[in-house]
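re: the backbone from monday

yeah here it is again, tokenized this time
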């Protein structure tokens, strides 16, 4: 039997080797392309998610500012008659009514969670109270108002007149002359059960520059 020429065998081996190298490089290139394509898709998804979150954040801020714009002038006008700072009133309304989105504020114009006793002018709703170091859900009767102005005016009268058991209940609130002191005085005088209430009010006032309504 005739032997295949050695040079031809070597040539075939070279072709096979080259083919293998080309295939290997193509596989590497394909894998690299897929990797970077996947990275690009993930980066775009992350970017879109960040844009969506920022858009939602800006939407919420616009809603908050719209609510502040609505009640700010009312609080300023009402609080001029009392020894209260509009910035505190506005911050309380924002915090306690969730910027006017709570059921109590939307349906009954009650911005501050004021309780009621007359069944003809109040409604029973669930609320959260901070007791013995934790939040609990309770049912309570809340006052119904015909407008935000009525709610804000009743809120101001509460501080001026005090409670039925202590007319000087809020003397430290009335004595405070800046929003930081007045916020802490609300906790001191027993207005709120939340231990971080003053901190939350101050943060809102500074975040939305509510002090502008005090001047």
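seq for it, each position gets an aa:
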């Amino acid at each position: 039997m005739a032997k295949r020429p050695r040079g031809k065998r070597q040539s075939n081996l070279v072709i096979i080797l080259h083919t293998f190298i080309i295939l290997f490089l193509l596989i590497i290139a394909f894998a690299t392309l897929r990797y970077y394509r996947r990275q690009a898709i993930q980066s775009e998804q992350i970017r879109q998610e960040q844009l969506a979150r920022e858009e939602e954040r800006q939407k919420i801020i616009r809603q908050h500012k719209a609510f502040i714009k609505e009640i700010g002038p009312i609080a300023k006008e009402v609080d001029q008659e009392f020894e209260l700072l509009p910035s505190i009133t506005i911050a309380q309304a924002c915090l306690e009514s969730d910027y006017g989105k709570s059921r109590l504020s939307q349906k009954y114009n009650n911005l501050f969670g004021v309780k009621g006793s007359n069944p003809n002018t109040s409604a029973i709703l669930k609320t959260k109270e901070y007791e013995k170091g934790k939040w609990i859900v309770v049912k309570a009767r809340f006052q119904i108002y015909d407008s935000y102005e009525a709610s804000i005016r009743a809120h101001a009268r509460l501080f001026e007149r005090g409670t039925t058991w202590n007319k000087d209940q809020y003397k430290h609130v009335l004595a405070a002359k800046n929003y930081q002191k007045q916020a802490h005085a609300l906790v001191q005088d027993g207005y709120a059960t939340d231990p971080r209430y003053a901190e939350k009010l101050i943060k809102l006032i500074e975040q939305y520059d509510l002090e502008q309504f005090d001047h």
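The first strand starts at residue 122 and ends at 131. Residues 6-79 form the longest helix (74 residues).
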